[in-house]
UniProtKB/TrEMBL annotation:
Pfam families membership: DctP
Name recorded for this polypeptide: DctP family TRAP transporter solute-binding subunit
GO cellular-component term (any): outer membrane-bounded periplasmic space
Signal sequence region: 1-23
Protein family (similarity comment): Belongs to the bacterial solute-binding protein 7 family.
Gene3D superfamilies: Bacterial extracellular solute-binding protein, family 7
NCBIfam families per UniProt: TRAP_S1
Record organism: Mailhella massiliensis
Subcellular location: Cell envelope
Length: 357
């Protein structure tokens, strides 16, 4: 009995000593996502949260809050809320954080990334290269922790009027864009009338005919949103890409043990592969489909062009000559924003993409 009581007291002491470490972890961590849970973006966030919960045996319980819930619909306020700790994690668009981090406008330079022999290889080269490191440094200077990349995809144009074959076809067209300045410059240069509308209000704009069209990634947003309900024309022009940033509040990150930080980074790396596969499905050499099959995560739509055509959409796939015309029409935008972003960063990205050709 004496030995038994001694063992109980020792166990109690161990419990007391370990309690503060356990108490340092929250019961729930909030992860912010702008679009719906069913979007490729939302699915990627959920995949990350599920992996983390499983591999930490529930020590880190992340709950995804889609639909810009945590920022009252104002997507460009997300970075500030992560810095303040109102949001623990965010799978954030570079576009939405670019007003505070000018360098993140890099991949929004019109026809900058896609104007390469292999646009996906070019994007990977930026993230893996010198320019990607420069982007991460710029993000972390704001006081948040960068964990990994994701992908929403190349942004294509859908309209209720069309088809769009040349810049003149866009003249006076009211197009929904997110409220970041580079978008206004791009569509103004193309003769359109950009309308800055938060995503939480965008669908209402489509329903009421307030705008004539919008631009978003095909798999990530347009397919899951069933954009053909309002728009009958799809312009496949790849004018910019929307990388995603998986980030955490710095204090939250520092509260995790080194072992759990390593697990989070591993889960982020797997989320990146999943996120990119969802984004590129139907547009690459078939490797995305094979990867999704290998993890048993194949979505309902694997041929986006076929699906859009079956739903009555007219698809215009730009030729090299058409891209050249739009590239020339937006030269002034690239010139202006190269200075805003930083010429050193733009040159580094060009070098990274060239090396990957």
């Amino acid at each position: 009995m004496k030995l038994f009581r001694t063992a109980l007291m020792a166990a109690a002491c161990v419990g007391i000593l370990s309690a503060p470490a356990l108490a340092a972890y929250k019961q729930e961590y909030k992860l912010s996502v702008v679009p719906a849970a069913t979007s490729g973006w939302g699915l990627s966030a959920t995949y990350f949260a599920d992996l983390v919960r499983e591999r930490t045996d529930g020590r880190i319980n992340i709950k995804v809050y889609p639909g810009a819930q945590l920022m009252a619909g104002k997507q460009t306020s997300e970075l500030l809320l992560v810095r303040r700790g109102a949001i623990d994690f965010a799978l954030a668009s570079t576009i939405n954080w670019s007003p505070q981090v000018q360098e993140l406008n890099l991949t929004a330079l019109p026809f900058f990334v896609a104007n390469n022999p292999d646009r996906y290889k070019a994007m990977d080269a930026i993230e893996d290269g010198k320019s990607g490191k420069m982007l991460v440094e710029a993000v972390e200077k704001t006081g948040v922790k960068f964990i990994g990349w994701g992908e929403n995809g190349f942004r294509e144009l859908t309209t209720s009027k069309g088809p769009i074959n040349k810049p003149a076809d866009m003249k006076g067209m009211k197009l929904r864009v997110c409220g970041t300045p580079i978008f206004a410059d791009i569509f103004t240069a193309l003769g359109a009338n950009p309308q800055a509308i938060n995503w939480s209000e965008a669908v209402t704009g489509f329903q009421q005919g307030i705008v004539d069209g919008q631009e978003n990634p095909t798999n990530g947003i347009n397919i899951t949103l069933q954009i053909w309900t309002w728009h009958k024309y799809h312009t496949d022009w790849h004018y910019m890409i929307d990388p995603l940033l998986l980030t955490a509040n710095s204090k939250v990150w520092d509260s995790f043990s080194k072992e759990d930080q390593a697990i989070l980074m591993e889960c982020a790396a797997e989320m990146e592969k999943y996120s990119k596969a969802l984004s590129r499905l139907g547009f690459d050499d078939g490797s995305s489909l094979e990867y999704l099959k290998s993890i048993n995560k194949v979505p309902a739509v694997t041929d986006p062009f076929k699906t859009m055509e079956e739903k009555g959409m007219t698809i215009v796939k730009f030729t090299d000559e058409q891209v050249d015309e739009f590239y020339a029409a937006t030269q002034s935008v690239r010139d202006k924003w190269t200075k805003e972003i930083g010429e050193e960063l733009v040159k580094a990205a060009e070098a990274d993409m060239k090396a990957a050709q």
